[in-house]
Automatic annotation (TrEMBL):
Record keywords: Endoplasmic reticulum, Membrane, Transmembrane, Transmembrane helix
Source organism: Zea mays (Maize)
InterPro entries referenced in this protein's UniProt entry, alphabetically: Reticulon, Reticulon-like
Ranges that cross the membrane: 49-69, 125-149
Protein name stated in the entry: Reticulon-like protein
Subcellular location: Endoplasmic reticulum membrane
Length: 198
């Protein structure tokens, strides 16, 4: 049973997150950009640390709730409406199952490298880890997260607009990269055979 190509909106889940990433709900997308920029500015440029901002926000929240509850009892008003704050077993189980899938994928890649001695996977992992290391050298963690958020809000609508051209160029780049990786693997295999015969 062959299925046709799916739209980018469907690939992103088709819900509110897809609408946000594709700027179908412009106010929410703009609010995400402004919120991410504000958080980045507060922590990166203004010099605040995350624990101090979190503790000050929680201190303010607890103080407001305490004085609201005290004034409510003195003025015969209702107490502040607080929802039941607990995490259900279903949410924890769903998160654990999702994490389990990713952990098993990582372990399968490690198994392919260590046991099956798959050179192609080994070279891909080495390249990916080198790129991540290089990018980590250039930026600190918060700036890297900010860049990731901005890219996730800017790339999907551009890809949706220019999908055919991007797919064509990525296909060409993938075939060139695959040829280079295959060449490296065959050369490494030939040099290993020559060393064994000597």
């Amino acid at each position: 049973m062959a299925t046709g190509p799916r739209s980018l909106h469907a690939l992103l889940g088709g819900g509110a997150v897809a609408d946000l990433l594709l700027w179908r709900r412009r106010n929410a997308s703009a609010a995400a950009v402004v919120g991410a920029t504000t958080v980045w500015f507060v922590f990166e440029r203004a010099g605040y640390s995350f624990p101090s901002v979190l503790s000050n926000a929680l201190l303010l929240l607890v103080a407001i709730l305490f004085f609201w509850a005290k004034s409510a009892s003195l003025l015969n008003r209702p107490l502040p409406p607080l929802p039941n704050l607990e995490v259900s077993d279903a949410i924890v189980e769903k998160a654990a199952n999702h994490a389990l899938v990713w952990i098993n994928r990582l372990l399968a890649v490690g198994h392919d490298i260590a046991i099956k001695r798959d050179r192609k996977v080994f070279i891909k992992v080495i390249l990916i880890l080198w790129v991540v290391s290089f990018i980590g050298m250039l930026f600190n963690f918060l700036t890297l997260i900010y860049i990731g958020v901005m890219l996730s809000l800017l790339v999907p609508p551009l890809y949706e607009k220019y999908q055919d051209q991007v797919d064509e160029k990525v296909g060409v780049a993938y075939s060139v990269l695959s040829r280079h990786i295959d060449t490296i693997i065959t050369r490494a295999g030939q040099s290993a055979k020559q060393k064994k015969t000597e």
